[in-house]
Amino acid sequence: MFWPEHISTIGILAATLFLLRVLHSFGHFKIQHTLWEKIGVVGVSPGGGIFSWLLAVLKSPVKLDEYLQDGYDKYSKQGKPFGLPTMWMGGYLVILPRSMLHFLNRSRQELSGFNALLEGIQFKYLLSDRGRIWSNPIHFEVTNDLTSKDLAVLAPIMMEEFENAFRTCWDDPGMADNGLITDAFASMTRITSRVSVRVMLGLPICRNAEYMEESMRYSNSIMQSAAIINCLPPFMRPVIGRLLGLWTRHNARKVLKFMVPVVEERLQKHKQMGGDAHSQLDMLQSLIRVAQNHGPAELGADRIAKRVLALKTMFIFGIGWVFAQAVLEIYSNPDCADIVRTLEQECRRVARENNGLSTREAIDKLYHVDSAIRESMRLNDAFLHTLPFDVVAGSPIELSKGWTISPGSRVRMAYPGRFVHLDPDIYPEPRRFDPFRFVHKGDTNSSEESGEEAMSKQELLTTPSKSFLFFGYGRHGCPGRWFVSTLVKQALSYVVLNYDVEVTNLPGKKQSLLNFVLPPMEARLRVKRKVSVSTE
Ligand code: HEM
């Protein structure tokens, strides 16, 4: 008699405490009012109060796509910012319209995406910062070495590695007549990763199958763990995050076991050659030079190997994503035969005129290939909104009449990248894959117009604009994009010249979780080497 009553009182008390803890951990008692007063908010019912807000945040991991589309149509298209409830970025984000893209031209001292990036990958749980690898990311400086001069040296090395990687991953002597059936996303990511690792660490480690598998496992564990933690309410993150951190750190140790001896050997050579940084051209060599400029403490093999590891996920997933999506768009299109014929003809002509496709100059002339990849990137963003940033210094940003964001206040902002790319007012028939949409029509094959002239008129995949935000926008647009472009164009030209490809299992409907569009894991390909065709 007394006991059941007691239990229900304890139950109600516990539930209230739990709810208060949840509300407190989201910190939204004040935020939601501030936002509602200043700008529109999506995903919450008008006048629904804190519970409507809380529900919107809890649903946001799977509803972000819907919320963003709603906000884009209602607010962005009228040039207005809107509030987006999100579990992903600790409560809410302000999504700015295209007309406010000019803010991204502010300096890194004024705008910083760094804290948001670290929060997004759940750095504090998943990665170790011994040696200040993440809090002092000097490894980003290696992108200064990816200039067109260095890419000219790297392009032939990359092509050589593609030849080897495709033969290893796509040629199965036992299946010569029927071709090889393979997982589209995994196998294409494996191929581009191998070429990326050749550029990062050189031979022979890029051909070490065990190392490559451990690397993939490590990158997967970071991505998956970060996604899980980002889906959890903040108060649950410390426990689950630390458990997942045990897994990611274990995977990191396994990869480092392969990498540290490679770095040690290179440091040894570097010393023997009196610090001649160009004894071998790859990113490790650039990193050694960068480390040297930052003082002797940075020159430890362990620390340098960790910096290579920090750069890796970007190389493995980003580039594999772009290549795999382009192949799937082209080979699953109803007009596949015509598209492939046009691409193949261009690759053959350029290869003939340039003695092959190994050089940067030759790759730069593949305008149709460039357009097809840019079009696939437009349709296949990896993120729903662009990478978020905070105002940390400089002048305030006026978001709407009566609401100005002053430096240092915690208002995190982003742009609706994917929704700009799919806006019918910007791109006619936006959901249709139109591979040659960006080709400068009429004269790319004309002998009267030089390659340089044509190129200056075509919007290339490396050209960010207010309508193409895949690599960001403004002065902080991705500095690795020329490298990505050269690598993916080489990969696609190799495919159209050397393989018959059939998509045997189509990619399903695009799904998203948090801010990520999920990769087409179920898509499968049949690949068969063409008979008696040279690489070029
Ligand atoms: C397909 C692969 C890649 C994609 C989709 C990508 C995308 C991006 C995006 C969206 C940004 C943010 C730009 C902004 O804040 O407006 C960025 C920044 C950056 N990316 Fe990439 N990236 C890729 C590959 C690479 C590679 C291979 C490197 C290195 C070689 C690289 C180095 C960087 C660096 C250092 C920044 C920071 C730039 C700054 O803060 O000024 N990225 N990237």
Write a short abstract of this structure.
The protein is an alpha+beta fold. The protein is built from 17 helices and 13 strands.
Protein model, in words:
By secondary structure, the protein is of the alpha+beta class. It folds into 2 domains: 27-110, no CATH class; 138-386 and 428-466 and 469-529, Cytochrome P450 (Cytochrome p450). The chain has 17 helices and 13 strands. The protein has helices at residues 2-26, 28-38, 49-74, 114-120, 123-126, 148-170, 184-201, 209-231, 237-272, 283-293, 301-331, 336-354, 360-364, 367-379, 417-421, 451-457, 481-498, and strands at residues 40-41, 82-86, 91-95, 111-112, 180-183, 390-391, 397-400, 403-405, 413-414, 499-505, 512-513, 516-517, 524-529. It has a 4-stranded mixed β-sheet. A 3-stranded antiparallel β-sheet has the order 5-13-10. The protein has a two-stranded antiparallel sheet with strand order 4-6. Helix 6 (148-170) packs parallel to helix 17, helix 7 (184-201) packs antiparallel against helix 11 and helix 9 (237-272) packs across helix 11. The radius of gyration is 25 Å and the shape is globular. The model has no long low-confidence stretch (mean pLDDT 86). It binds protoporphyrin IX containing FE (HEM). Protoporphyrin IX containing FE binds at residues 104, 108, 113, 140, 143, 146, 314-315, 318-319, 322, 387, 471-473, 476-480, 483-484. Its cofactor is heme. This is Cytochrome P450. It holds the Pfam family p450. One of its GO terms (molecular function) is oxidoreductase activity, acting on paired donors, with incorporation or reduction of molecular oxygen. InterPro entries: Cyt_P450, Cyt_P450_CS, Cyt_P450_E_grp-IV, Cyt_P450_sf.
